[in-house]
Amino acid sequence: AEDGRELGSKVGGKPDNLQGWVMLGRTHRSLEQFDKSIQAYDRALKLSADDDLRLERVEVIAMKTQGNFEGEPWRVIRDILQKDPQHYGALLTAGSASYAERKYADALKYWEQARKPLEANHPDLPGLENAIATVRETMGLPAKAASTGPSGGSAAASSALNVSGQISLSAALKAKTSPNDAVFVYATPGNGDRMPLAIMKTT
Questions:
Q1: Band of pLDDT at residue 181, cut at 50, 70 and 90
Q2: Cα separation values, 1 from 6, 8, 24, 27, 126, Å
Q3: Are 137 and 101 in contact (CB under 8 A)?
């Protein structure tokens, strides 16, 4: 929080500092200060109407509403995809939004479309293939073969990656759930990247 205040002070003295506003938006996002993050992205977008920044901003809006992409987030995603159907960031975000809404067929469509142009050594490939395999499993579809590129495939590349944590439910949610209910854990980087780090299904 102290770093965020210091950065905000520095950026405030330079209202044309695009990267400063973007960094401030990401910092507030990582601290879950969503209103401040949105305000910082608003300032950045006045300096650059960049589609990737627009996506980052609406992701914060969705985070503020516990993963709800209805309204402005989906409008921005669809607007970008209408201009560029192969926009990588928009396809990733559309897949994430669809997955959050349990529209698994749509998530699979967007993520597979994002995966098509990637080279075998692309750093996002292992995580994206893992996400695709997870959503296919959720839909009861057979898993596709891992990448056959020179990198050795997604399984080998992702085997060294681990995400750990603990899940707890509020009292209000506990009253509405049972031990057999399916729970999806969906992890994304705190720096604003849209590529999922991990997706896990449990009960």
A1: confident
A2: 9, 10, 11, 9, 33
A3: no
